[in-house]
Amino acid sequence: MRSGIRWAADGLRTHLRSIVSVAAVLAVCAGLVLLLGLVGILNLAFIVDQFDSFYNPAWVSLSLTLMAFAAGFVLAMPIGLMRAYGPSMLRRRRGAAVGLTYKRAKELYGPGKAIRVVGIRRLKKILFVPGYGLATGYVEGIRGTPFYVQMWLVFFFITMTFPQLPRVQYFAGFVGLTINTVAYQAEVLRAGFQSVSQGQIDAAKAIGMKEYQTFANITLPQSLRLIVLPLTNEWIALFKASAILSFIAIQELMFQSKNIGSNLGQPLEGFVMVTILYLLINIPLSKVVTYVERKKRIPGLGTGVQSMRAAKQRRARDAA
Prior knowledge:
This protein is mostly helical.
């Protein structure tokens, strides 16, 4: 009994700041809603009576966001790799050391393997430059245009291409969210890959690890730890962006809010209820992920690049 009480007390002390911040936000929101109800601006009885009508739209918003985010992560991985290692690979390909002739490959690998090695290298050379250009253009194009425009382009393309598809607007919403989040997740992954210090990669090469082994055992695990918070922020941003799907008749949270405002004549109450639901979903999620990231953090991880830059800046100041 005493050990359980002591464990609960330790947990409260550890998470006191998060608990207080969440409680403060919820208290301010509840106080504001009550104040508006007392002065007659909000109909509190209507909010209580209609709040359960948002449960199914909330599930629609969550399911579309989760599926699009998961698909976006899979698609963003190769784009992030291309964006992270593209410039260095292009620089290496300009060097004379990369030009492996068949004669040299035959001396190194033998006649049978030489054809395959030279062919693979030439194929990579042919595909890499346009691949890097397409990846960069896609990321910059998506990040430089609003999701509202992207959604309409995707919606019209899919509805005109697959007009008989059942619930075509939901498929269009999923594709639109996926296309949008791929670009942002690719940039997050790029930053995570580049944050792993070059010293660890050089050490892996020194002990004979191949490039894919170095990536799978060193770069990827460390970068995934570093990008937990940025990926969570991207999910929250994508979840909020899903409100735009109401314009293509997807019955998610914002659609239900506008439905209450137009059909029941209570627009302010509808927006207040959808605001409460967004806060109830996003704030606890961000706090939980922040706690997990803090508990699983490895001291010094991801500081190699920043430390090298800081050291260079200090040397430059000292020289000046």
